[in-house]
Amino acid sequence: MRRDTHFILGLLLALAAPAAVQAASISSQVSADVDYLGDVTYQSDVRTSPGGTSVCAELPTIGPCGDQWVGGMLFIEQHAYAGANTDFGSNRARVLARSFGSDVVSTAQATSFWSDELTFTGVKFADVVTLRFHLDGNWNEASAAFQLGVFDPALPPPPPDDVSLFDTTGHPIDMGTSAMAGFDSLNMAGLAFSPISGAQPAFPTGTSEDGAINWAFELSFIPVDGRTYTLASVLALTASIADVEHFGIDPTPFGTSGSADFDSTAALTEIILPAGVSMVSAAGASYNVTVVPEPETWAMLLAGLGLVGFATRRRVG
Question: Is the model's pTM score more than 0.85?
C-alpha cells in the first residue's frame, strides 16, 4: 500500500518563479526511516552532500541493509534506501522502501539539485541558443518529480499568489523564466516550453503507480549579449510503503515495496551555440557544447565537397 508523500509541481501554472540560489551550487539530500505504528522510529537518517550521498534504514539490523540470507534462511527486513548523486548538468537518484509485517511504514526520499550561471557574449540579433535534455527513469508504488528552468534576471518574478517553480523542493528562484520543463509521475504529465521551441509534452508509459519515462526534449531561447542566466534543475523521488492489516488479515503476507530509479539520469546532454557566441559557466563546468557554423561556412563546406566529388568523377572517367 503506497502512502502518497509527494511533490506538487507549479509547472503548468506560470512561466515564472520566486530568494535566489547561489551562483553555482549542487546538493544531494536523502532520508530514510522505518516506523512502527507511526510513533516508534527504529531507524532514521538524513544526509546532505554537495555531490553524492546515500542512506539506508532497516529493522531488524542483522547485517548490511536489505534482505539477508543467514544460515540458509532468507530474512526479509523492513528497510528504506535513498541515494542521490549530483553534478553540474546531471541529476541522479534512487529510492526503495520495503515493508513486511503489519503497521510498519518504510519511507525513503531523495532530492538532487544543481544550478549554474551562464553568461553569453558575442550574441548577434536573433541568435538562438539551444539546450538539449534527457530524462530517463521508472517508478513502482513511488513518485517522481522533475523541474528545470532557464531563469532571466531581467524578467519580473511572478505575482505573490502564483506558485513558484521550485517552491515545493526548497530552492525557489526570484526570477522569471525564458524556458522551462517539468514532469510529475503522480499526474502522468510533463511539458517543456519556450517561446522559440514551443510546447513539447512528455509521453510516459504505464500508470502513476507503475510507469516509466524516457523523454528527450530541447529548450531554445534568444539570449541578450553579456547577460547572465541561471540554469537550475531538481529531481525529487519518494517511496513510502505501509503494510497494513484489514480486518485482522494482512493482504500482503510476503511484504510490499515501492521504488523509483532515475539513476540513468536527468541530464543536460548538449548546448548548441551560434557561430561567434561564447559561453562562460560560473561553476567552470565542462558541458557538451556544439557551435553551429555560420551560413557562409556551410556554403564553403558544401562547395568544397562538390569540388572533391567532381574531381573524383573525372579521375574515374
Answer: no
